[in-house]
Amino acid sequence: MNPITLIIIYFTILMGPVITMASSNLLLMWVGLELSLLAIIPLLINKKNPRSTEAATKYFITQATASMIILMAMVLNYKQLGMWTFQQQTNNILLNLTLISLSMKLGLAPFHYWLPEVTQGIPMHIGLILLTWQKIAPLSILFQIFHLLNPIITTILAISSIFIGAWGGLNQTQTRKIMAYSSIAHMGWMMAILPYNPNLMLLNLIIYIVLTIPMFIALTMNSSTTINAISLLWNKTPMILIMTSLILLSMGGLPPLTGFLPKWAIISELLKNKSLIMATLMAMMALLNLFFYTRLIYSTSLTMFPTNNNSKMMSHHPNLKYTSIMPTLTIISTLTLPLSPQLIS
Question: What are the Cα distances from residue 189, in Å, to 42, 113, 141, 205, 334?
Answer without folding.
Answer: 31, 18, 17, 10, 19
